[in-house]
């Protein structure tokens, strides 16, 4: 069974940093696109950042210059370094990975990790 698990969330003050991690485990042949999304209660899930297999990255406008997405293919892991966090960054952050497994192509999502930015 392939699964994706996020970690690294928590409570921080405005201006502080957090690093989220998302590791995939199981029988995985190859991982392609990796992405982070976030959602606040009652809100729509929005795309925060993504990284391709070629390390091309995209970011939502409000996090450009503050967040950095990276990947370690040897560990099947994607990271999201979040600096200068603001209260509006408070959300549940979800990781999704596109991969091929013995079942073919799958997009696997984690259960999410809470990030709270508050003074």
Fold blueprint:
Elements: E1 3-7, E2 10-12, E3 18-25, E4 28-39, E5 46-51, E6 57-59, E7 67-72, E8 77-82, E9 91-101, E10 104-109, E11 113-117
Parallel strand pairs: 2-11
Antiparallel strand pairs: 1-3, 3-8, 4-5, 4-9, 5-6, 7-8, 9-10, 9-11
Tell me what the structure shows.
By secondary structure, the protein is mainly beta. It is built from no helices and 11 strands. Strands 2, 4, 5, 6, 9, 10 and 11 form a 7-stranded mixed sheet that branches. A 4-stranded antiparallel sheet has the order 1-3-8-7, with no helix packed on it. β7 and β8 (77-82) form a beta hairpin. The protein is globular, with a radius of gyration of 14 Å.
Keyword list:
mainly beta; single chain; 119 residues; seven-stranded mixed beta sheet
Q: What percent of residues are in strands?
A: over 45%
Largest sheet: 7 strands, mixed
What class would the helix/strand composition place it in?
A: mainly beta
Order of helices and strands: EEEEEEEEEEE
What share of the residues lie within helices?
Answer: under 10%
Q: How much is the average pLDDT?
A: 97
Shape: globular
In brief:
It is built from no helices and eleven strands.
């Amino acid at each position: 069974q392939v699964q994706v698990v996020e970690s690294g969330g928590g409570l921080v003050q405005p201006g502080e940093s957090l690093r989220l991690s998302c590791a995939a485990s199981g029988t995985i042949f190859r991982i392609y696109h990796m992405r982070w999304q976030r959602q606040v209660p009652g809100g729509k899930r929005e795309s925060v950042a993504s990284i391709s297999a070629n390390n091309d990255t995209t970011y939502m406008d409000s996090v450009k210059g503050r967040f950095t997405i990276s990947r370690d293919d040897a560990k099947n892991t994607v990271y999201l370094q979040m600096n200068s966090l603001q209260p509006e960054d408070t959300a549940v952050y979800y990781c999704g990975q596109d991969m091929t497994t013995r079942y073919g192509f799958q997009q696997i999502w984690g259960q999410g990790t809470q990030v709270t930015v508050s003074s």
